[in-house]
Amino acid sequence: MSKRVLLINITRMGDLVQMGTLLQRLQHEWPGAEVDLVVDTRFAPVAKLLPHLRHIVSYDFHRLVDESRAQTKDVVTLYQDMTGWAAPLVEARYDRVVNLTFNRRSGLLASYVGGKEIRGIAAPKDGDVTIHNPWMAYLTDVHHERRFNHFNLVDIYALGGSGIGPFAPLLLNIPPDTAQWARDFLAPHARPQMSWVAVQVGASDPMKAWRPELFGQTLAALSRQSQVGYVFIGTEEERKAIQLAQTTFRKAGGTAPLCDAVGKTSLPQLAAVLAECRLLLTNDTGPMHLAVGVGTPVVDLSVGHVDFRETGPYGPGHWMVQPDLGCAPCGFDQVCLQHACKDRIVPDQMAALCLHVLTGVAFPRSTTGVRIYRSRADEDGLGSTELHAGREDPLVEWYGRFWRRFWFEEFTGRVSQVPCHPEPSPDSAEALTVMEHLTPLAKQLVSKTEELVRLTTRRPLPVNALKQMQLVENANRQQILALSMRSPATASLAVAMVRDTHNDDGSELTGLAQSRLATYRRWQKRLQAVATSFRSFNTTQGLVHRGKSRALPMARSA
Predict the structure, then answer these.
(1) Is the pLDDT of residue 293 over 90?
(2) Domain 4-132 has CATH 3.40.50.2000
(3) Spatial separation of the C-alpha atoms in residues 14 and 16, rounded to whole Å
(4) Distance between CA 145 and CA 38 in Å, rounded?
């Protein structure tokens, strides 16, 4: 009997397209697997373009959220509505439920449907939210140490929802009638020997959008060097920005034909239009992933809080442009009044990059203010990038590769084929010093927590002793976290430990204490692995840290 899998993905259109690799990986893991999908009604048409889906179960989650916030229906009624349409999912008895939406509502649904295995967020009846599968847990850590994350969301979905396997690009299947509609739509604007370039000026968040007038200048410069036409895509809410880009294009001498597809296509029709284009010039948006899925090269302008390594175009042949600023990408909670990153991207240079993608002319030799990357598949069969212009911070470059290898090996149990960095870390002496100070603290924390577990088994329960030991454990943990966050060699481990402590699982006191102990032992083991790796590498390079460790001022216990 074929395995049955349920996927829950109910928030954004881009997230839906980005699970395409997971769908292929599931077929690699379980050939012939029957895969069903729960999706928001708005995105069901896109889901129909994805391969390897048996049933698509759509529900108006957008309305559900609105009704719960407005309290037009009481909680009991809302819950009854959900259990009514979800009842067939419970009866399906899935072998695996993969929740790719990280909120409590989707967790409740995952737990209600149940299955032999749940991956992602679950919310059992007691109301606690738990995260199952280390890759899914890692996804919640990314935003805290995103400078060093080298895993694309596509791969996290695939590794967390299934496992390792051959590289699998995103794929969308366009129905023949929809493809013909797109050709007919573009035909009245076409000229002989002309290439269509799609342009996405807007974005769901203004922080993610390059300046419209700079788009216009780029398009004008490109049109003077190549026979192109521009298809403007987006929503009516972005109309003002699109008009500014078009006006700037004309003022800058642009004469290429313009085709307005803004608000005139369904999502499948938009995908078909993108399939007819030779290039998409875009901000980080959902349509960017549609273009990737239909095989259209992308030039992605990663501004604001966008990190192309997290959500950029997946698979070989795409280009990402990131401003060369110490604050780029900024944090999601950061408020920027200047958006200086957007002015680092020069229109003439972007036109030269687009010309390179369209015609194969030489890559632009002179670039300023940005780093330009090209996407590829790496030695482990995952999506990756390669720097083609600009210079990356040496610390970010070194630790990005280090943590990419470390977490892959930690979660898969396989040796990564991605080569180690040929040089020692720029802060090797400082990093080793931090780890030497952390090692005895780790032993102490584990020992104290072992005592805490023993105390929970005594009868009568020694309440005062438990409270005192818990204070000690908490103080030790806070001391360790404060010290760990001082070095990129240990900060990622600390972030994972904090998340694991919030994910403690146990139905009674001893179970909770044992879960906390398992968290600390896991962190201690990881710390030892990182320290061993550092010492081994630096010894090989003849740079082993000798002599007494430099004293570090210790943080006060909480």
Answers:
(1) yes
(2) yes
(3) 5
(4) 31
Contact by Cβ (8 Å): 234, 201:
yes
Residues 6+ apart with CB under 8 A from 301: 210, 281, 282, 283, 284, 321, 345, 350
Distance CA 410, CA 203 (A): 36
- pLDDT at residue 53 greater than cutoff 90: yes
Mean pLDDT of 90-116: 92
Write the pLDDT tens digit of every residue in 368-379. 999 999 999 999
The per-residue pLDDT for range 299-342, each reduced to its tens digit, is 999 987 788 999 999 999 999 999 987 666 766 566 665 677 77
Residue 176: exposure state from Cβ atoms within 10 A (0-12, 13-18, ≥19): exposed
Q: Is the predicted pLDDT of residue 413 greater than 60, yes or no? A: yes
**CATH number for domain 176-412, candidates 3.40.50.920, 3.40.50.2000, 1.10.10.10, 3.30.1050.10:** 3.40.50.2000
Torsion of CA 415, 420, 426, 430, to 10 degrees: 30
* Under 8 Å between Cβ of 210 and 283: yes
Sheet with 258-260, edge to edge strand ranges:
258-260, 228-233, 195-200, 279-283, 298-301, 319-323, 370-377, 383-389
In this structure, the dihedral spanned by the alpha carbons of residues 135, 139, 145 and 150, taken in order and rounded to 10 degrees, is: 70
Structure tokens given for 32: 């012939």
Q: What percent of the chain has pLDDT over 70?
A: 90
> Treating both helix axes as pointing N-terminal to C-terminal, what angle do 509-540 and 428-456 enclose, rounded to 10 degrees?
160
Confidence of residue 438 (pLDDT cuts 50, 70, 90): very high
* pTM, to two decimals: 0.92
Q: Is-contact 169 21, C-beta < 8 A?
A: yes
DSSP H/E element including 291: helix 286-293
**Intrachain domains 4-132 and 176-412 with the same fold:** yes
In angstroms, what CA-CA distances link 405 with 378, 489, 539?
11, 13, 19
Q: What is the pLDDT of residues 415-431, one digit of tens each?
A: 999 999 888 899 999 99
CB 517 within 8 A of CB 497: no
Burial class of residue 135, CB neighbours in 10 A (0-12, 13-18, 19+) = buried
Token output for 386 = 């390669």
